[in-house]
Design a protein that fits this description.
- Helix content is about 35%, strand content about 0%.
- By secondary structure, the protein is mainly alpha-helical.
- It is built from three helices and no strands.
- It has two domains: about 55 residues, no CATH class; about 40 residues, no CATH class.
- The protein is extended and about 55 Å long.
Amino acid sequence: MSSLPKDFYSTDYFTGKLIDQFKTSGTQKPFFAYLAFTAPHWPLHAHHSDIAKYRGRYDAGFEVLRTERLARQQKLGLIAPGVAPHSLKHPKGGWAD
C-alpha cells in the first residue's frame, strides 16, 4: 500500500477528482454527481492555516458562540429581533458530552 503525500487533504483531492471528471466527460448530457466530504468527521482534518485561523474561537463554549451568532443574525436582519434560540437540551447530554 502506498502512503499519502505529507500535504494530502481529502477534501481538496476528491474535489479535484470531481472537477476533472466534469472537464473530461466530453458530454453535454446532464448527470448526477455526489461528493460526500469526510474531513469534518473524526479525526478532524483541516489545513493547518484553517486551524490556526480559528484557534481560540470556540474556547468560550457552545452557549456563548450560539448567543453571538443569533445576535449577529438579528443585527443583519436575517432573523427578527426577539427570536429565542433553540433549547440547549440534548437527549444524550450537553456540549461537553
